[in-house]
């Protein structure tokens, strides 16, 4: 199936992908970055899946999130009747649960289920037995139970549990899959109908807190639900995506593990949450950030695990053939140890925004920021790997230098506007020095554009962020020139590429990639800020049309194949929907 054929359900600890054919093809338990127990997404159905669909097979007639909540409703029309499947994960209690309820809508429908649990990314085949009227599964540290009124048959090959049953109009047939560490006792059994009511109540109340009232309310609320689903509730960390190794180009090798939290997303995620009225989530995200980055500024990483851990060693899962043959499949991410200058600016900007928004107390945060600035004063001239984590030589990337300026600027503003104490004169001088350096070495006057790095003729989509960072006044012609240059040289079918890998030898990885979805939203946002509202609106609405039938977006889009690529759903894509919608709404109100 295509990437966009999947929908998401989750419990704010982990998430599952459910296909249009009724199969759960991806689920990591007990948390986002655990080994997958359903890995059919990357290894075919023998790597683990859970099918629940009409026995006749095929794809659904339609699906939606019920009233915008994270309860997936899939409808099947077949000869003789109509059935509906509700998929959701209740808010975590003792253990993770996946609930699937089959409802008869019209006539009678013959249904089939097939459960194939394979732990550790499909490598571990568990021991399965019937116990107490339910299916019990165990292998090493993993145990699971499938609770249902439908009798299941254990098949020796491929060691799956299957059942066929008929659902008539007005009937409900529930299935509850529960996971627990194998040395613990079985968690208490859930009542599917009760958990459905509880889950809907939680999401209804949460959605009721949204204060966005613009014309893009449906897109904004759907994206906020996705961000909430990608939040690890115990810590407030937000994963970039719940998947690993979905390719940036079908058949290519740019396949990365995104089940971690990136500092680069911090300020824009905070902006989206605060703007929509979710101060509790914004505070949790801010607090995760503070815990994660605490320590020696020289040791700051670009990403952390969802609990703030630093170790995520990268390895390849060679037994998995990859999504549509896209290899290697990776677990872990070696980019964590790259040097990216911009993260210091992103952290400081995030904490500045949090204070401006009046978020709760942040003990020792100012001391941490001052330590970052002490380090940055000596390190801002150093080359780095850049926002895009290029696995080539380090470069003096312009976006990174601008974010160093942002760090100094927000520290000055923290003293001048928020009453904090610090060597503001020194920070003002540093701010001016960085500004002059960027304008002298990162700007091409002949083409009237900033460039990807000092001395380069290449461009970088991150340059589109400059207008919203305050580096130059919005009427400065260099901003308009940079936006025009990106439109001219860095787009494909009207969508924005991150950069051109072949330009200036910046990237040594083979193969290309799709267009990066957030970058195109950045262009729409920049156009809105520069007063080009009709172009901004047209691009934004075109980007919204790339969402799948339940409103989800991956990391990238392949214009040639007209399909989504990259890890899915991508938090940064949905953050960009929220922030761009806010910018367009503000532009209309100020006109």
From TrEMBL:
One of its GO terms (molecular function) is alpha,alpha-trehalase activity. It catalyses: alpha,alpha-trehalose + H2O = alpha-D-glucose + beta-D-glucose. It is an enzyme of class 3 (hydrolase). This is Trehalase. Residues 2-178 form the Trehalase-like N-terminal domain. SUPFAM superfamilies: Six-hairpin glycosidases. Its EC number is 3.2.1.28. GO terms for biological process: trehalose catabolic process. Residues 215-581 form the GH15-like domain. Pathway: Glycan degradation; trehalose degradation; D-glucose from alpha,alpha-trehalose: step 1/1. It holds the Pfam family Glyco_hydro_15. Gene3D superfamilies: 1.50.10.10. Belongs to the glycosyl hydrolase 15 family. Its cofactor is phosphate. Keywords: Carbohydrate metabolism, Glycosidase, Hydrolase. It comes from Microbispora triticiradicis.
């Amino acid at each position: 199936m295509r990437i966009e054929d999947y929908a998401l359900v989750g419990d704010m600890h982990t998430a599952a992908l459910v296909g249009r054919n009724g199969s759960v093809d991806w689920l990591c338990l007990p948390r986002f970055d655990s080994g997958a127990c359903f890995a059919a997404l990357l290894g075919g159905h023998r790597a683990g899946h859970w099918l629940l669909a009409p026995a006749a097979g095929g794809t659904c007639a339609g699906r939606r999130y019920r009233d915008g909540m994270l309860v997936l409703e899939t409808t099947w029309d077949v000869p003789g009747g109509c059935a509906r499947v509700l998929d959701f994960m209740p808010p975590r209690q003792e253990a993770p649960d996946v609930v699937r309820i089959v409802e008869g809508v019209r006539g009678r429908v013959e249904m089939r289920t097939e459960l194939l649990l394979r732990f550790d990314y499909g490598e571990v085949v568990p021991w399965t037995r019937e116990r107490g009227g339910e299916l019990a599964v165990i292998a090493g540290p993993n145990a699971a139970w499938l609770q249902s009124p439908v009798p299941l048959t254990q098949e020796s090959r491929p060691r799956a549990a299957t059942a066929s049953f008929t659902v008539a109009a007005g009937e409900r047939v529930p299935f509850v899959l529960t996971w627990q560490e194998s040395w613990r006792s079985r968690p208490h059994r859930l009542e599917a109908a009760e958990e459905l009511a509880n889950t809907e109540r939680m999401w209804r109340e949460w959605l009721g807190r949204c204060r966005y009232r613009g014309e893009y309310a449906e897109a904004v609320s759907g994206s906020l639900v996705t961000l909430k689903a990608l939040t690890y509730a115990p810590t407030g960390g937000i994963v970039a995506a719940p998947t690993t190794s979905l390719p940036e180009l079908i058949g290519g090798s740019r396949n990365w593990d995104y089940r971690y939290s990136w500092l680069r997303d911090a300020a824009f995620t905070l902006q989206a949450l605060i703007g929509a009225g979710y101060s509790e989530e914004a505070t949790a995200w801010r607090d995760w950030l503070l815990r994660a980055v605490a320590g020696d500024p020289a040791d700051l990483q670009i990403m952390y695990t969802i609990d703030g851990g630093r170790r995520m060693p990268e390895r390849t899962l060679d037994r998995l053939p990859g999504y549509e043959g896209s290899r290697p499949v990776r677990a872990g991410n070696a980019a964590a140890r790259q040097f990216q200058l911009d993260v210091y600016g992103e952290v400081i900007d995030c904490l500045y925004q949090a204070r401006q928004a009046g978020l709760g107390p942040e003990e020792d945060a100012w001391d941490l920021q001052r330590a970052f600035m002490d380090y940055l004063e000596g390190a801002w001239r150093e080359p780095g790997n850049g926002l895009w984590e290029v696995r080539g030589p380090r470069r003096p990337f312009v976006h990174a230098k601008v974010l160093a300026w942002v760090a100094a600027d927000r520290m000055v503003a923290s003293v001048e506007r928020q009453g904090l104490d610090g060597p503001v004169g020194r920070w003002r001088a540093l701010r001016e020095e960085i500004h002059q350096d960027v304008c002298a070495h990162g700007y091409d006057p002949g083409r009237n554009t900033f460039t990807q790095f000092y001395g380069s003729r290449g461009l970088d989509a991150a340059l589109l962020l400059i207008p919203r960072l305050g580096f130059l006044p919005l009427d400065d012609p260099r901003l308009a020139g940079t936006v025009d240059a990106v439109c001219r040289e860095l787009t494909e079918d009207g969508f924005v590429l991150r950069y051109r890998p072949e330009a200036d030898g910046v990237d040594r990885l083979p193969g290309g990639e799709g267009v990066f979805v957030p970058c195109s939203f950045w262009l729409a946002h920049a156009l809105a800020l520069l007063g080009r509202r009709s172009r901004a609106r047209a691009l934004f609405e075109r980007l919204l049309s790339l969402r799948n039938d339940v409103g989800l977006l991956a990391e990238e889009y392949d214009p040639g194949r007209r399909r989504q690529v990259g890890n899915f759903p991508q938090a940064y894509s949905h953050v960009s929907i929220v922030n761009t919608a806010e910018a367009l709404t503000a532009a209309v109100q100020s006109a």
